[in-house]
Amino acid sequence: MDSAVKELAMARLTVMESRQNGARYSLSFMAPRGVRVEKYVSGQYSYYSDAKAGLEQAVASLKANGKVLIETRLNGAGFTLSYLDGLRQDSDWTTRRFSFQSGSFSYYSDAKASLQEAVEQLREVGCDIYESRLNGSSYTLVFDGPARSAVQNYASGQYSFFSEAKNGMAQTVRSLESRGNVILEARLNGSAFTVSYLTSYYQY
After folding, report:
1. What is the reported pTM?
2. Do residues 69 and 81 make contact, with C-beta atoms less than 8 angstroms apart?
3. What are the sequence ranges of the domains in the chain?
4. Of 108, 127, 176, 190, which has the most beta carbons under 10 Å away?
């Protein structure tokens, strides 16, 4: 999993969540439109050592052609590769109006803090804020942002403990912010979390 996260980071793709599930793992990440996850499953080699060498050669070949590898796994005397194909980028500088309604927080103070942070981030990137309004334990934001940006919502999977969900949310927020996204809401839901954000205009 760590290798896949590193590959995605090197390709300048935002990792939303990396979660170990026993002997498996889940990855959630942002990628431009047109990007596909492709999978290749090899045939069975005579020996494990041959399969391992074949996997290493396949990895080297795919990397040389600009593929981003998100899974490299030996299956006995065979292997599986999962990779991204079709990476591209685009941008647009014009603006449009956004209206955002948060979910309900457990506490008023959490909603207030989240709103204040969102307002500060929107100001930092030069957005015109028309309304930032608390509604009990939720809030409303109205602002102008880049036309090619979008408001996206990410809901995590269920963690075993609240503390793990809290740490996972913090990691997701940091990952999004590092790519220029504006966090509009970061809200814990028991042992899971929701993050809403304005996508950075240069990611698509």
Report:
1. 0.56
2. yes
3. 2-85, 95-203
4. 176
- Joined together, the tokens standing for residue 64 give 């040389």
Cα distance from N-terminal residue to C-terminal residue, the chain: 25
Whose structure tokens read 């090899």?
42
Element spanning 193, H or E: strand 192-198
The residue type of 16 is M
Mean pLDDT by 10 residues, the chain (204 residues): 83 83 83 83 80 80 78 88 70 72 93 92 82 83 85 94 93 93 94 93 52
CB 178 within 8 A of CB 30: no
Contact 165, 188 (CB under 8 A): yes
Angle at 49 between CA 45 and CA 50, to 5 degrees: 40
